[in-house]
Each structure stands twice: as C-alpha cells, then as structure tokens.
Amino acid sequence: MQMALSRQDSGIARVQGLYRLLALDMDGTLLNPDKVITPAVHEEIRAYMRRGGRVTIASGRFPASVWLHARAAEMNAPLIALNGAVILDEATGGLKAGTPLPPKRIQELIRFADEHGAYVQLYGYNKLYVREINEMNARWPLANVVVSPDKELNEQNYAEQLGMIEVVAVGDLLQFVSGISMPAPPIYKATVIGPSPDLISEWMRRLGMEAEAPQLAKPSQELHLLAMPQQEAAQPEGVQESPQLAIARSEPAFTLTRTGRHRFDVNAYGVSKRSALEQLCRELHIPSSEVAAVGDYDNDADMLAWSGLGVAMGNAKPHIKRLAKAVTSSNGEDGVAKAIQKFLL
Q1: Closest by Cα among 266, 262, 259 to 208
Q2: In degrees rounded to 5, what are phi and psi of residue 264?
Q3: CA angle (304 as vertex; 302, 310 as ends), nearest 5
Q4: What is the pLDDT of residues 110-142, one digit of tens each?
Q5: What is the pTM of this model?
C-alpha cells in the first residue's frame, strides 16, 4: 500500500530538521500485528536519531513495557506510559513524573463497575491490581514483553522481562484503594472490560460520556467527564441517578478513552498522551510545531491533533485518519518506517 496524504494537508513539506521529536504509539503503530518492531522500523528510527531527532513512545501500556521496547530501539527521550499518566526516564525506566487517579474517584469507578457487572483492574507503577487472579489477567504481563520472532511466547522464554511486571490479587478493591488495611499505592490508570462493544459504549454514556467518533471541530477523541448543571442532565421519569454519578456531575472526574472493542481506560481528569507530551516538550524546549506523532486509536487522537505533524496509521479508524494531517501505511506494512522516510529524513 502506498502512503497517502489526507487531502486537507497535501502541501506538507518534507523539510529536514523540521520535526525535532517523534512520538510513537505502540500497539497498532510501532508494533506490527505480531507485536514486533520490524527491522525496517528499527532502521528508520535509528536514521532519524542519527540526524539529531529525539524519539519517544506514548502508550497506554505499563512503564516497564514501554521502557523495554524503547531500550530495544535505543530511543533517546523520556517516555510516556499509561495514557500519559506517567513520564519515565529513558535510561533507567524510573518514574520522572506522574498523575494518579484520586482515591475518591477510583472508589466511584469501582462502585459503578460493581453496579453494572463490569470487570475493572487498576494499574500502579508496573503492578496490576485485581480482585483475584484469573486466566485473563494472569497473562497480562506476557502481553507486555519485547517479543523475539525466534522465541515462543511463554513464561519460560521471557522470565526476565516478566519479573518487571506483577499481577497482585488484593481481594476487595474498594477496601484496597481506601487504604483501610494498609496505605494504598498510587493508581495511574484503570481499565473497564465488558462482554460486548455495545455495553462498553453504554457504560461510557452512563459515566457521562459520549463514545462515538468526535466531530472534526473537536480537538480530541479523549472524552472528559465534565461538570454538568443538573438541569442539563435530567433523568427520565422514574429513573434515579446513582450517588456516584451525582457526585461526578458536580466537578471534573475522569478522562475516559475507548481502547478496544470490549474495553475503555480511565485516567485522572485532564490526563492524556497530549498532556504528557506538552510536559515533555516544555522540558526539552521543543514547540508543538516541531513534534511529529504517529498513532492509530482513540487514545492517540489528542496528540495527533496537537502535534505539528499528526500521522494516522493505515489501520486506524476513519475518524482518526480524518483528524490527522497525513496517513501512512498499516502497521503490517512498516507504516512508521514509511512516515519517517517521507517526513523526517
């Protein structure tokens, strides 16, 4: 597939040195369908860095997973994980800055999940907190390793990497985050998982969100639960609003982002890949006009719209392609490599 530019940006210039920072999403972007950074993508990233460019990852994944993949590609800028909730050091993988969810908000979310029969899990710094270990969450660390094409994906082959991410069964999640038995650790992200896409959309709406694609006039697909006057949110006759939603409507609560057909992520209000990139760019003294960002899904929308060059992958949904300035090939066709070749070298 040939790279195509969206028609509104057909005049993008290929100017060496125009973009000083490249921010890459991971799943569906940096990684191919086999969850591997291909040799072609590796080479173009190295070529861009040899020209003086800085490269970071901006992902919803665990910090350890982001750091391991960045280390494999020898990236040279601080890294963004958990949808922008944390910024980590590219050399050590240590925390540089973080914005956890307020404990009160996590409690509201857990109550909502319990009320609607949703599965919820909580992300600390490289720890996944769950009620109990099950078949799905037990394999979560294995889904975050740097995959070698010549190694079967199993616990024995990736034991060293798996030691960096832990799944912790805590029993009662409400009691855990309230710190009744022991001080609760910072929780940077939560994920809500359900049995059907329609139910996920409904749960997002019930949390005060609108899960459809954004209008083009809006800068972001990351959808915030905003303060809302009660008269604008009238309930149908005979339907009572849950106490946690009544609290949520009184002040900002969450940033919610659709991250899959059966799931959405929950971060503190105002947290996104864009907010973390803004913080990183202040540290590096790089304006947004000199940032190129590449992504494919809803949690990439903010940074694609904000950056000087937002590139959507060929495998991205139509609404993500519309808000980007350019569209590259899919992650199965070395789309990141082609974007670097066309715009950054």
Answers
A1: 266
A2: -140, 155
A3: 170
A4: 999 999 999 999 999 999 999 999 998 999 999
A5: 0.85
